[in-house]
């Protein structure tokens, strides 16, 4: 049922560094979507022209479609005091490649603080997001702000404030279910508040052990994955569910497991998500028949 009803994908570098491994994982899962972040450790916009053409050709030959790509724009590597020129340049280069492969969305964040007072941090973030969104509009792409590093991801109130201040259709939301564990908030409560703006979902689960986030299969942790997925199904969410397992690869912590573990666990994670979505769909149908 899940393959027919739901659009499934994943951040493919968590299946392996090599593109062939990333493609293999998605073909094994029989998924038509793939989300690009890196190949051989190099970020999407850092590939050479030759590498990009080779990657584009391989993806085209397999029939895999790229809807969303990751970027480093405003992420944990670039605090609010860093020059915005790096982000504007990356956005321009990323947009050109997105158009070439037919991608619509690019993931961004909203700048970690660097010693500023809250109001100053907020004001600078909003100003920069105005600039980035204006450029995205000219490039005919959409920024997906993730509930992750940065001012806008600190709480649902900040997220809504950011969206309302920028107020532009070229800025929407990527909701990562598992981020509540690392950033200490209730993901389900967060989702219910920001839901109208969500256009893409990352599925990740985990729990806190001795104060550290430890990641699990979907539905096995404390991120309220079941509640979030049930809510999305009930509200007829039409976007993609993309896995970001973090079981063996956590880019921002520079953690990477063995290649054979990456591929095997990625496929296992995808199958677990399919099973969970099927269970939740059947439960909803059964509940409806009893009403």
TrEMBL record:
<dbReference type="InterPro" id="IPR050312">
    <property type="entry name" value="IolE/XylAMocC-like"/>
</dbReference>
<dbReference type="InterPro" id="IPR036237">
    <property type="entry name" value="Xyl_isomerase-like_sf"/>
</dbReference>
<dbReference type="Pfam" id="PF01261">
    <property type="entry name" value="AP_endonuc_2"/>
</dbReference>
<keyword id="KW-0413">Isomerase</keyword>
<dbReference type="InterPro" id="IPR013022">
    <property type="entry name" value="Xyl_isomerase-like_TIM-brl"/>
</dbReference>
<protein>
    <submittedName>
        <fullName>Sugar phosphate isomerase/epimerase</fullName>
    </submittedName>
</protein>
<feature type="domain" description="Xylose isomerase-like TIM barrel">
    <location>
        <begin position="43"/>
        <end position="264"/>
    </location>
</feature>
<dbReference type="GO" id="GO:0016853">
    <property type="term" value="F:isomerase activity"/>
</dbReference>
